[in-house]
Amino acid sequence: MAEQFDLSNFEKSMIIREMNYADINAILEMQRLCFPGMEPWKEEQLRSHLGVFPQGQLVAELDGTVIGSCSSLLINFDEYDDRHTWDDVTDGGYITNHNQDGYNMYGIEVMVHPEYRRMQVGQRLYEARKELARELNLKSIIIGGRIPNYHKHADEMSPREYVDSVSRHKIYDPVLTFQLMNGFQLMRINPNYLQDDKASGKYATLMEWNNVDYKPISKRHFKTSLPVRICVVQYLMRAIESFDDLASQVEYFVDVASDAHSDFVVFPEIFTTQLMSFLNEPSPSQAVRKLTEYTPQYIELFTDLAVRYNINIIGGSHFVKEEDDEIYNIAYLFRRDGSIDKQYKIHITPNERKWWGISAGDSVRVFDTDCGKIAIQICYDIEFPELARIATDMGANIIFSPFCTEDRQGYLRVRYCAQARAVENQIYTVISGTVGNLPQTENMDIQYAQSAIFAPSDFEYARDGIVGETNANLEMVLIGDVDLEILRRQRQNGTVKQLKDRRHDVYRVEYKKD
């Protein structure tokens, strides 16, 4: 029997999904319609949300049109003052205080396009938030809710009396009533929460939904420490006769790091140029091309060592010829679970360009590991503060900088900049360099290094902001512990708070690869 109607012509598609960069203009326009008279998001704030915590940014879409959205971040709520404001808990709307190991989701906005209200769009967004909280095993969802009808009753009752009347269904409030109906319970009322929310008299109701499926699991030792042990290799460049000689030297250091129960072992920049000592190629550019032929052996060696010794390896860096026939300076991350990632050197020195014809990469990567998020910035790259700021905003807590410098002046540029990046971004930085010499290898004849681990400069960190450093120009290792929990606490409550105190209204660093 023939169908009378093509039902597909009547179907609608309502979905809840993660926000993306293409949604930003629609969200900005929707916010102006939803909250007239209130300052809307800035585009850079929404971009920051997507860079910091993309899972927590959701939209409702009907037939391809964005009709609602909600934004959130993760925190440990007990670290915030009882009288916190919206600016306090969102870092001025940029959520760079997001704590990926936080126990609480904090909702900072929900909105539904005026033309699509009474379609349970808000309820769908709330349910999606609850599902995310269950998926991430969060203790609760907390929101600072507006009470937009309070201005109609402000002359006759206090905020507490108003909230009590709404709770007992004597007064209807479009926000508070909705939140109560969705299982949120009142915690307290905060004054001066949102300065431009005149309809609410600047008050907000702190509300909480408890996740009954929450299973307490702490990744922190005694809930006060999250230590990461780093072994930095200061590698001696000396003539060798085969790849096996290099492999033997590398495995020795990985073994040392593993015996010390290190989480990471870090090798220097282009230390594999040691292979040039037996390639017998006088032309530096041709020697580099011959060196790239060892890339498969290099990757296989480090992958095997990472798994066998149960340690994450920053494999220094290595010259790699890729499909475009260009040669890149690439640092590889070899995780102990056998997975591999890589970071291209972005800024190429005049020396690399002149002698070896090295090409530049163009993306800043931040890598997930079993010890949190890290970044790798090879030698010259650490001298450009924008890269470290971008990596920090993407969640990096440690930046590893393999380097290779031939004199003290070049070394000090790397060292001073790595220390500055640690202070500016409240992160740990690690530098690992080569020493020794390769007398018969053109452009790799002398080396100068003093490897180190640096911390921000404040009371809870190592004196002088130096976790540890090697002796200059000697082959040795440095083993030091950094504490990611201290890092997180100090970002919130340190003597100075460089990340929280940035003037987003005056300047910004824009990453064009977004």
From TrEMBL:
InterPro entries for the chain: Acyl_CoA_acyltransferase (IPR016181), C-N_Hydrolase (IPR003010), C-N_Hydrolase_sf (IPR036526), GNAT_dom (IPR000182), UPF0012_CS (IPR001110)
Matching SUPFAM superfamilies: Acyl-CoA N-acyltransferases (Nat), Carbon-nitrogen hydrolase
Pfam family, one: Acetyltransf_1
Gene3D superfamilies: 3.40.630.30, Carbon-nitrogen hydrolase
Residue ranges annotated for the N-acetyltransferase domain, each copy included: 14-212
Protein name listed in UniProt: GNAT family N-acetyltransferase
Family the entry assigns: Belongs to the carbon-nitrogen hydrolase superfamily. NIT1/NIT2 family.
Source species, domain of life: Bacteria
EC number(s) per entry: 2.3.1.-
GO MF terms, alphabetically ordered: acyltransferase activity
Major enzyme class: transferase
Residue ranges of every copy of the CN hydrolase domain listed in the record: 228-484
Originating species: Metaplanococcus flavidus
Keywords: Acyltransferase, Transferase
